[in-house]
């Protein structure tokens, strides 16, 4: 049963993405990719399963699909320190990692992508060098709804 996509991410776009990663275009993988594309925030496997419950996919199928999509570089798995794994669709060419910071509300636990924001380590002392290269940034605070 087709339903209106929030993102406009078509079934053909999902199939192209899967084929590009040498994955079979199963109904579950297509549905998971489209669901992640519909949201501007990382989702847990339970949230994806809830979104897709009307289609009869069980949670193990959803989790297996998310794991395969993560391993293929189509999605990124985020471990934000709260024991909930979340997944987000990666933009093409992102080399299997999220390239934007995330904001987590310390009151309600909501996680939001900070797309369009760039964070870098800038030392106070120009002679000091950063200890390494940033791969993932998580900012914690209070979201607008909880203020």
From TrEMBL:
Amino-acid positions noted as binding Fe cation in the UniProt annotation, renumbered to this chain: 120
One GO term of the biological process aspect: negative regulation of DNA-templated transcription
Cofactor: how bound: Binds 1 zinc ion per subunit. Binds 1 Mn(2+) or Fe(2+) ion per subunit.
Pfam family name, one: FUR
Keywords carried by this UniProt record: Iron, Metal-binding, Zinc
Cofactor: Zn(2+); Mn(2+); Fe(2+)
GO MF entries: DNA-binding transcription factor activity; transcription cis-regulatory region binding; zinc ion binding
Residues given in the record as Zn(2+) binding sites: 105, 108
UniProt protein name: Fur family transcriptional regulator
């Amino acid at each position: 049963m087709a339903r209106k996509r929030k993102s406009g991410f078509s079934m053909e776009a999902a199939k192209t993405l899967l084929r590009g990663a040498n994955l079979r275009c199963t109904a579950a993988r297509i549905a998971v990719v489209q669901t992640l594309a519909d949201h501007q925030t990382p989702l847990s496997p339970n949230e994806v399963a809830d979104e897709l419950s009307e289609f009869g996919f069980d949670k193990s199928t959803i989790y297996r699909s998310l794991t395969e999509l993560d391993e293929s570089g189509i999605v990124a798995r985020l471990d934000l320190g709260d024991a909930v794994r979340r997944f987000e669709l990666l933009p093409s060419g992102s080399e299997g990692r999220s390239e934007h910071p995330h904001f987590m509300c310390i009151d309600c636990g909501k996680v939001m992508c900070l797309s369009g924001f760039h964070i870098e380590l800038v030392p106070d002392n120009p002679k000091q060098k950063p200890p390494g290269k940033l791969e993932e940034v998580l900012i914690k605070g209070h979201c607008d709804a909880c203020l």
